[in-house]
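Example record

One chain of 671 residues, shown exactly as stored in the release files.
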Amino acid sequence: MGIHGLMSYVGENKHFFCELKLKNTKLIIDGSNLYHHLYFDSGLDIQHGGDYDSFTDRVHKFFETLTVCNIKPYVLLDGGCDVTDKKFETLKQRAKDKINMVCTITHRGNGKILPLLAREVFKQTLTKLHVPFVQCFSEADRELVSLANYWCCPVLTLDSDFCIFDLKAGYCPFTYFQWKNICTCKETSECYVSAQCFFNDKFCSYFSNMSKALLPLFAVLNGNDYINLPSLETFFSKVRFPVGPCSRSNRRHMRIQGLLNWLSCFADPEEAIENVLKYLKKQDQTEVRELLCSSMEEYKQSDVNLKDFFLGDTHRPDIPKYLFGILPEWMLCSLAKGQLPAFFIDALVLRRTFLLVQVENPQLPSCHVVSLPVRKVIYQLLICSSQNFPSACCAEEASQYCYVTEFDRLNKSLKKSKVEFTGQSFISAEGNFSLETMPEVPSACRLGLLLNALEMQPSILQCVPSHLGLPVVVTCYWLIHSEPRATVQHLDAILVGFLYGDLHQHTFESEPAADADVMKLYNELVNIKNKKQQNKQLDLGLAHIFCQWQCCLQMGFYLNQLLWTPLPEPDLTRIYSGPLIHNVYQKLKSSSFLQDLLSTTPKVEMLFQNMRTAVISALPADFFSKHKTRSRKHKREQHKPTVTGATSKLETYLDCDVSNRFTGLQVDDQT
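Predicted structure tokens for this chain:
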């Protein structure tokens, strides 16, 4: 949600704010807004698919600051899209804007495209930090207000709708929340965060003590994400607003101030609405009245009780009516705890999903095409195994249910496509898979379905540490399905990224501390990651292939969650670093790079080769050589490095304890 122009308007009028020294308090945080703000405000990588480890460090720093100031955070994340479709046109326009932004970024322009896995990385980081959070079933705005008013504490967000909500303790915009500069009280030596807090009491008093009940009508008339009525322009064209003192250089600000001054003349919304309707044609008045009244309802406080959820008195919040009888209890609880993605709600309830655009080659098909077969399995499990799917229906009737509409990029435009799938539930030796009984299905059966969807055999997991099982399986799937076809150098770059994540864990989060050689290797990878490519344009072909890998990981991760995690969830916070992966790929042009990089750390070398062997052994024997022949024929291969120097020294070790995260780093040296 958002009210056009309001945030910049109030930002120019500091008398609407009070200065706060935040400490010793609860703080209700708009999580969806927070992870966008922290990523973009930190100037992190956008072009290369995401800098998730640096983003994780930023999230750590933010919540560490709150802890120092004894601020207790409660984070609320948006869930599925609005089921009434009032925001559908806005969602489509935002998707189109993102596609245009990608085109700008690929030509060295500016833009803000959030990396594909940022939300999941954020949730994993909150879990590790033990920060209380909930994933709401739809947009979180009204729940934020309800919880903040119950505990009488501020809301932290950057959403102009919170200038409209009646918040007892006010609204702190991120832009005025100085968390990077902790202050200390001279009298008590307590730490605090300096913040500016917006109060709509002060706002209304500026406009002749206007009734706060008129603010929702102002939001709807001025324009927000839910309403766009052309007939209202008739109203604006006929009314002469008393603008008063205001900067004449900003017409939107003039309109905001004039509308507020005009509304302040009325005692309540009902009187104001009747005066709006006087300027409209009679045939439009009924529709406009109904739409204005229904849209104003969005600014009422929610009845959902999140307090009991956060205090541990209930396993999940109350669910909306549209989810009754659709999802089993374990899924509802998992959704609330952020252990399942909101993507599932949109697919099941709306039969519609928006696939997030990435910084990829806009001349090629969307990177999400590569993971379509996996999404079909997800959709089939969600819809054909749900409680409201007609179990005893003919094929023709079932086909009416067996589809999901996807919105995705096609070249430089937004494309709508209907994804159809079979109307049969999945069957194993133990019986039918159903969402209701999924946690009771034997792990081997769930793993079998996961591997079958990713077109792999169980043998691929034999010598891979358990925490890297899913990424390795997904990587093999990606190699088979990527188009243009990925090469062995792309594979090696991805696997070095896996090493980087494990080395960080081994260096900073394990006992005993890493030895000198491991530390040296980790620092060398950090240096490679941080090396800037001077005046070098983004390699769109390279970016496109690695974006496809992220799409495969995302859907493999989601399917694993839906199947009650037959494979351990990988740590997404350190598994992919875009700047590192791109720079490593460039260095792989030297045939000695891998040997030079890994030769001083045999344990790490073994982990790398175990993963590499697992992937390559699952591919056809001539997979990479076949690709080279085809590439030469079609003149599509730009880089032709070899790794024979590196691989000649590396050997395969199959004697691994795959349940141990640091297996590859702890195997005894073998010569």
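Notes: Confidence is low (pLDDT under 50) at residues 632-664, 666-671.
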